[in-house]
Specification:
Blueprint: E1 2-8, H1 18-29, E2 34-40, H2 63-73, E3 77-82, H3 91-98, E4 108-114, H4 120-132, E5 136-137, E6 142-144, H5 146-153, H6 164-198
GO cellular component, one term: cytosol
GO molecular function: FMN binding; oxidoreductase activity
InterPro entries: Flavoprotein-like_sf, FMN_Rdtase-like_dom, NAD(P)H-dep_reductase
Length: about 200
Protein backbone atom coordinates (compact mmCIF):
# COMPACT_ATOMS: atom_id res chain seq x y z
CA UNK A 1 0.00 0.00 0.00
CA UNK A 2 1.42 3.37 -1.00
CA UNK A 3 1.36 6.26 1.43
CA UNK A 4 0.06 9.31 -0.43
CA UNK A 5 -0.30 12.90 0.78
CA UNK A 6 -3.24 15.01 -0.32
CA UNK A 7 -1.70 18.47 -0.01
CA UNK A 8 -4.25 21.23 0.52
CA UNK A 9 -2.67 24.32 -1.00
CA UNK A 10 -5.15 27.07 -0.12
CA UNK A 11 -5.11 28.52 3.37
CA UNK A 12 -7.83 31.16 2.88
CA UNK A 13 -10.60 31.25 5.48
CA UNK A 14 -13.18 31.16 2.69
CA UNK A 15 -11.50 28.41 0.66
CA UNK A 16 -13.42 25.92 -1.44
CA UNK A 17 -10.75 23.26 -0.89
CA UNK A 18 -12.52 21.46 1.96
CA UNK A 19 -15.26 20.30 -0.41
CA UNK A 20 -12.97 18.38 -2.81
CA UNK A 21 -10.89 17.14 0.14
CA UNK A 22 -13.96 15.38 1.57
CA UNK A 23 -14.98 14.08 -1.88
CA UNK A 24 -11.55 12.69 -2.73
CA UNK A 25 -11.16 11.18 0.74
CA UNK A 26 -14.45 9.32 0.34
CA UNK A 27 -13.39 7.91 -3.04
CA UNK A 28 -9.97 6.77 -1.80
CA UNK A 29 -11.49 5.27 1.36
CA UNK A 30 -13.20 2.66 -0.85
CA UNK A 31 -9.80 1.39 -2.05
CA UNK A 32 -7.30 -0.88 -0.34
CA UNK A 33 -4.15 0.18 -2.23
CA UNK A 34 -3.68 3.75 -1.00
CA UNK A 35 -3.04 5.08 2.49
CA UNK A 36 -4.15 8.70 2.07
CA UNK A 37 -3.25 11.43 4.54
CA UNK A 38 -4.47 15.02 4.29
CA UNK A 39 -1.62 17.48 4.66
CA UNK A 40 -3.05 20.96 5.13
CA UNK A 41 -0.73 23.93 4.64
CA UNK A 42 -2.69 25.72 7.35
CA UNK A 43 -0.90 23.38 9.77
CA UNK A 44 2.55 24.44 8.51
CA UNK A 45 2.66 28.26 8.72
CA UNK A 46 6.16 28.89 7.39
CA UNK A 47 7.52 32.39 6.70
CA UNK A 48 8.41 33.35 3.17
CA UNK A 49 11.57 31.43 2.35
CA UNK A 50 14.40 33.03 4.28
CA UNK A 51 17.02 30.29 4.67
CA UNK A 52 20.59 30.88 3.52
CA UNK A 53 20.16 28.24 0.81
CA UNK A 54 17.97 25.35 -0.29
CA UNK A 55 17.61 22.48 2.16
CA UNK A 56 19.33 20.43 -0.54
CA UNK A 57 22.57 22.15 0.55
CA UNK A 58 22.12 23.28 4.17
CA UNK A 59 19.88 22.28 7.06
CA UNK A 60 16.90 24.60 7.47
CA UNK A 61 16.93 26.64 10.67
CA UNK A 62 13.18 27.22 10.86
CA UNK A 63 11.56 24.66 13.17
CA UNK A 64 8.28 24.60 11.24
CA UNK A 65 10.22 24.01 8.02
CA UNK A 66 11.97 21.07 9.65
CA UNK A 67 8.58 19.67 10.72
CA UNK A 68 7.33 20.13 7.16
CA UNK A 69 10.34 18.32 5.68
CA UNK A 70 9.89 15.38 8.05
CA UNK A 71 6.21 15.13 7.15
CA UNK A 72 6.80 15.29 3.39
CA UNK A 73 9.53 12.63 3.64
CA UNK A 74 6.96 10.10 4.92
CA UNK A 75 5.14 9.74 1.60
CA UNK A 76 5.52 7.71 -1.58
CA UNK A 77 3.68 10.28 -3.70
CA UNK A 78 1.57 13.41 -3.64
CA UNK A 79 -1.76 14.75 -4.83
CA UNK A 80 -1.69 18.53 -4.96
CA UNK A 81 -5.15 20.07 -4.55
CA UNK A 82 -4.91 23.52 -6.04
CA UNK A 83 -6.95 26.55 -7.00
CA UNK A 84 -5.66 29.11 -9.49
CA UNK A 85 -4.68 32.62 -8.49
CA UNK A 86 -4.13 34.86 -11.52
CA UNK A 87 -2.95 32.03 -13.80
CA UNK A 88 -0.74 30.44 -11.15
CA UNK A 89 -0.62 28.32 -7.99
CA UNK A 90 -0.93 29.76 -4.51
CA UNK A 91 2.09 31.53 -3.07
CA UNK A 92 1.83 29.44 0.10
CA UNK A 93 2.21 26.23 -1.93
CA UNK A 94 5.22 27.47 -3.88
CA UNK A 95 6.77 28.58 -0.60
CA UNK A 96 6.15 25.16 0.98
CA UNK A 97 7.65 23.43 -2.04
CA UNK A 98 10.77 25.58 -1.77
CA UNK A 99 11.28 24.71 1.90
CA UNK A 100 11.94 21.09 0.95
CA UNK A 101 14.02 19.39 -1.73
CA UNK A 102 15.32 15.86 -1.23
CA UNK A 103 12.03 14.80 0.34
CA UNK A 104 10.26 15.33 -3.03
CA UNK A 105 12.83 13.52 -5.16
CA UNK A 106 11.84 10.56 -7.37
CA UNK A 107 8.21 10.49 -6.29
CA UNK A 108 5.06 10.99 -8.40
CA UNK A 109 2.96 14.15 -8.30
CA UNK A 110 -0.72 14.22 -9.25
CA UNK A 111 -2.98 17.25 -9.46
CA UNK A 112 -6.60 18.09 -8.72
CA UNK A 113 -7.61 21.62 -9.62
CA UNK A 114 -10.74 23.66 -9.14
CA UNK A 115 -12.10 26.97 -10.39
CA UNK A 116 -13.52 28.45 -13.57
CA UNK A 117 -10.88 26.69 -15.72
CA UNK A 118 -10.19 23.92 -13.23
CA UNK A 119 -6.84 25.49 -12.25
CA UNK A 120 -5.41 24.22 -15.55
CA UNK A 121 -2.81 27.00 -15.73
CA UNK A 122 -1.87 26.53 -12.09
CA UNK A 123 -1.34 22.83 -12.73
CA UNK A 124 0.71 23.57 -15.84
CA UNK A 125 3.03 25.73 -13.74
CA UNK A 126 3.20 23.16 -10.95
CA UNK A 127 4.23 20.43 -13.39
CA UNK A 128 7.32 22.47 -14.30
CA UNK A 129 8.10 23.11 -10.63
CA UNK A 130 7.67 19.40 -9.84
CA UNK A 131 10.31 18.50 -12.44
CA UNK A 132 12.76 20.91 -10.78
CA UNK A 133 12.29 18.94 -7.55
CA UNK A 134 12.91 15.65 -9.38
CA UNK A 135 9.29 14.59 -9.00
CA UNK A 136 7.44 12.79 -11.77
CA UNK A 137 4.30 14.76 -12.67
CA UNK A 138 1.77 12.27 -14.00
CA UNK A 139 -0.34 12.91 -17.07
CA UNK A 140 -3.85 12.32 -15.72
CA UNK A 141 -5.32 15.18 -13.68
CA UNK A 142 -8.76 16.10 -12.37
CA UNK A 143 -10.11 19.53 -13.27
CA UNK A 144 -13.26 20.68 -11.47
CA UNK A 145 -14.18 23.49 -13.81
CA UNK A 146 -16.85 25.57 -15.46
CA UNK A 147 -20.44 24.55 -14.81
CA UNK A 148 -19.36 21.72 -12.50
CA UNK A 149 -17.42 24.07 -10.25
CA UNK A 150 -20.12 26.73 -10.12
CA UNK A 151 -22.84 24.15 -9.51
CA UNK A 152 -21.09 23.11 -6.31
CA UNK A 153 -19.58 26.43 -5.21
CA UNK A 154 -22.56 28.70 -5.87
CA UNK A 155 -25.63 26.50 -6.17
CA UNK A 156 -25.37 23.92 -3.41
CA UNK A 157 -24.50 20.93 -5.58
CA UNK A 158 -22.37 18.03 -4.40
CA UNK A 159 -19.25 16.72 -6.11
CA UNK A 160 -20.53 13.20 -5.49
CA UNK A 161 -23.40 14.01 -7.88
CA UNK A 162 -20.93 14.68 -10.71
CA UNK A 163 -20.24 11.03 -11.43
CA UNK A 164 -18.41 11.83 -14.69
CA UNK A 165 -15.57 13.29 -12.60
CA UNK A 166 -14.96 9.98 -10.88
CA UNK A 167 -13.58 8.45 -14.09
CA UNK A 168 -10.92 11.16 -14.03
CA UNK A 169 -10.13 10.40 -10.39
CA UNK A 170 -9.79 6.70 -11.20
CA UNK A 171 -7.43 7.43 -14.10
CA UNK A 172 -5.36 9.78 -11.96
CA UNK A 173 -5.07 7.25 -9.14
CA UNK A 174 -4.14 4.46 -11.57
CA UNK A 175 -1.28 6.58 -12.94
CA UNK A 176 -0.24 7.63 -9.45
CA UNK A 177 -0.11 4.02 -8.26
CA UNK A 178 1.85 2.82 -11.30
CA UNK A 179 4.48 5.50 -10.95
CA UNK A 180 4.42 5.34 -7.17
CA UNK A 181 5.15 1.64 -7.11
CA UNK A 182 7.78 1.85 -9.86
CA UNK A 183 9.61 4.72 -8.20
CA UNK A 184 9.39 3.18 -4.73
CA UNK A 185 10.96 -0.02 -6.07
CA UNK A 186 13.75 2.02 -7.66
CA UNK A 187 14.36 4.04 -4.49
CA UNK A 188 14.60 0.85 -2.42
CA UNK A 189 17.08 -0.60 -4.93
CA UNK A 190 19.18 2.57 -4.71
CA UNK A 191 19.14 2.40 -0.91
CA UNK A 192 20.35 -1.20 -1.02
CA UNK A 193 23.21 -0.25 -3.33
CA UNK A 194 24.22 2.61 -1.01
CA UNK A 195 23.98 0.36 2.05
CA UNK A 196 26.07 -2.32 0.35
CA UNK A 197 28.74 0.20 -0.64
CA UNK A 198 28.93 1.42 2.96
CA UNK A 199 29.70 -2.05 4.33
Amino acid sequence: MLKIALIVSSTRAARFADTPVAWLSDIVAQRDDIDLEIVDLRDYPMPFFDEVASSNFVTSTNEMAQNWQRKIAEFDGYIFLTPEYNHGPTAVLKNALDYSYKEWNRKPAAFVGYGSVGAARSIEALRLVAVAFQMVPINAAVLIQGADFFKVWKHGGQLSELTHLEAGVDAMLADLLWWGNALKTARIADDLVVAGAAQ
